Amino acid sequence: MQQIVGIAVKRRRTLLAGVVLAGTMAFAPTLFAADTSPIKVGWISSLTGPLSSAALAENQGVKFAIDEINKAGGINGRPLELLTRDTGGDPTKAVNFANQLVHSDKVAFIIGPVNSGESLATIPIVAKAGVPNIVIAAVDELTNPVKYPRAFRVINTSEQWIRTANHYALDVLKHRKVAIIGDTTGYGTDSAKKAAKLLEAAGAKPVYSVLVDPNKTSLSDEMEKARAAGADVVMPWSAATGLLARILNTRGDMQWDVPVVGHPSLMALPIRNLLNKPTYWENTYSAGYVSTTYGADGKLPERTQKLMDAIRPSLGGKIEFTFWWVALGYDAVKVIEHAVKKAGSTDPKAIQAALESTRDLKGVYGDYGWGPQDRNGFPDAGMVVNKANTFKEGSFERAPQ
C-alpha cells in the first residue's frame, strides 16, 4: 500500500512540474523579449530668434542622423524618437523645456541647448535629473565631471575658439592692438572676458573692449571708439550673424580696412545677404575646423564629403548652411548611438561609463574622446582659421599663413 502511495505522489509531482514548465514556456516570449520601445531624445534648440543660424543647420544634421539610424533598424532594435523644443533663444523657455523633457517626457538623452546662455541655465536641471546631456555649446563652465557627471561636450570649448583666433591675430597677422566686441548674451559676455584675459597673458592687453546688445542697430559709436583707441585688429565674440554683419558694414562704411578675426559665425552664409557691399566681407577671418576646410587639392576630408553627398538631396540639392554645424548635429546623435551600443542599454550609469571610456571616436565634425575627469571631447588638432568670404557648399578655404 505504501509503495502505491509513493508512486502516486511522484506522478503528482511530475504532473505539477510539467504544468509549471508549460506555464513558464508560455510566458517566456514576454519575459525574455528584447526591449523595442523608442529611445526618446530631447532636442533643445533655438530654431527662431537672433541666434538661430547655427541651430537651423544643426537641426538638419540631427534629423538626418535620426532618420538614418531608424532606417537601419534603430539602436539594438530600438528606434529613436526625437522631441524637438524651440526656445527662440530665451533661457526661460529653455529651462521650462528641460524640466518638461526630463520629468514629463522621460527622455533618455538631452541634446543642447544650442546657445551657451541657455545651456548655463539648463545643465544643472538635466544633471540633477541624472539624464545624459550631449553638450553642443562652447562656454567652458558647461562641463564639470563632479557637478555635471553626465554632461559630455561634443563641440570645442570657447577657449579653443579664442586661442585659435588669438594665435592668428597675434602670431600670423602680427597685430597686437586688439579691440574686442562681445554681445550681452551669456556666451558673448563670458567669451569677451576670456578673450581679454588670454590676450593679456600673451602680452597684448586689448586697447578697447565693449559688450553690445545683439539686436543693436547701429555700431558706429563702438567702431569709432575702437579706431580712436588705435586698434589694428577687431575681434568679435558673438554668434549673432546680424550683429556680426553690422560690425562688417560699419567697418566698410568707415573705410577702415582693419582685419576682423573671431567667432566662426563670421563665416555664416546669412551674413552675405546682410552686407552693404560684398567687399565688406574681405579681410575677415574666423576660427573654423579642419573637417570643413578645403585642402590644397580643393577637396574636403572624406568623411565630410560622404555626409555632404548623403544629406544633399534632403536639402534640395544645395548646401546653404555652414556645414560644420550640420556635421555637429549629426555627430551628436551618432555619439548617442555609440554610447547605447557600448553600454548595451540606456541606463544612465552605463552610458556615463561608456562615454568615459571612449577614445578616438571617429566623427564627421571631429574625432572624440572623454575620460573620468574629462568631459570635453573635441581635440585642438581639429581647429583651423578660415577666410570668411570663401563659402562653398558650407565649407571654406584656409586663411593665409
Name some characteristics of this structure.
401 residues; alpha/beta; Rossmann fold; disordered N terminus
Give structural notes.
The model is unreliable at 1-12 and 14-31 (pLDDT under 50). The chain starts with a helix and ends in a 14-residue tail after the last strand. The protein is built from 11 helices and 13 strands. 43% of the residues lie in helices and 14% in strands. The strands form 4 sheets. A 5-stranded parallel beta sheet has the order 2-1-3-4-5, sandwiched between helices. Strands 7-6-8 form a 3-stranded parallel beta sheet, sandwiched between helices. A 3-stranded mixed beta sheet has the order 9-10-13, covered by helices on one side. It has one domain: Response regulator (Rossmann fold), CATH 3.40.50.2300.
Topology:
Blueprint: H1 2-32, E1 39-45, H2 52-71, E2 80-86, H3 91-104, E3 109-111, H4 116-129, E4 133-135, E5 151-153, H5 158-172, E6 178-183, H6 186-201, E7 208-212, H7 220-228, E8 233-237, H8 241-253, E9 260-262, E10 284-289, H9 302-311, H10 323-343, H11 348-356, E11 361-362, E12 367-368, E13 383-387
Parallel strand pairs: 1-2, 1-3, 3-4, 4-5, 6-7, 6-8, 9-10
Antiparallel strand pairs: 10-13, 11-12
Helix pairs in contact: 2-10, 3-4, 5-6, 10-11
Q: What would you report as the Rg, rounded to the nearest angstrom?
A: 26 Å
Biggest sheet record: 5 strands, parallel
Q: How many domain units? A: 1
User: What is the element string, with H for helices and E for strands?
Assistant: HEHEHEHEEHEHEHEHEEHHHEEE
| Poorly predicted regions | 1-12, 14-31
Class from secondary-structure proportions: alpha/beta
Find the CATH superfamily: Response regulator
Give the beta-strand count: 13
Tally of separate helices: 11
- Main β-sheet, spatial strand arrangement: 2-1-3-4-5
CATH topology: Rossmann fold
Oligomer: single chain
State the separation between the terminal residues, measured CA to CA: 105 Å
CATH class: Alpha Beta
Helix content: 40-55%
> Strand share of the residues?
5-15%
Mean pLDDT: 92
